[in-house]
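Q: What would this chain look like folded?
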Amino acid sequence: MPAPLTRRGSLKIGLGAAASLAAPTVLRAEAPYKRSLRMQSLNSGEKLTVTYWAEGTYLTDALKEINWFMRDLRDQQATSMSVRLLDLLYEIDQRTASTNPLYTLSGYRTERTNTKLAQKSADIDEQSFHLRGMALDLTQDFRNPRALFDVAATLGQGGAGFYPTKRPFVHIDVGPLDTWVWPQKGRPGRAAEYDRHQAQTPSS
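A: My prediction, written as structure tokens:
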């Protein structure tokens, strides 16, 4: 699990970590050299439009901005968000009909925040991928909140959950493949499954 970072610590991420990451597959021919995200936090009101990948390289300064934008708002701590998650967000946004930004609800969570939430709701996974910077709760089209979930589920690049509650939202993560619709829950043990897979995968 990545160590939590303060804002200052988040800004010290080295160039090497970003440069060593593999380039994503391009989806649209009209924009082959960059990937951008347009987001707005429904909790803080913050907005962020940022190009995080261009010409085969993840952009370090942009990743720092995203890390802070997706921080734990309760503890004001950030972590290095998974670039696989960012690529998934980009792909989802490219495939949805809505022109709205991605409205975010919950990105990174510290252990303290996740424990507090788990004590209040049985729907909170104590081994949540939010703890790893690998998950995001969000919405986009308020008139059709399920549309984003349908795209994520079709892509099949991780976990996708739809919560048609009073304030509908979609959970996405880049853990093992799974889909669910509340009040159903994600498959138990996905975090352990991910760890086993990582342990069995030879490091390059």
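Residues 83-95 form the longest helix (13 residues).
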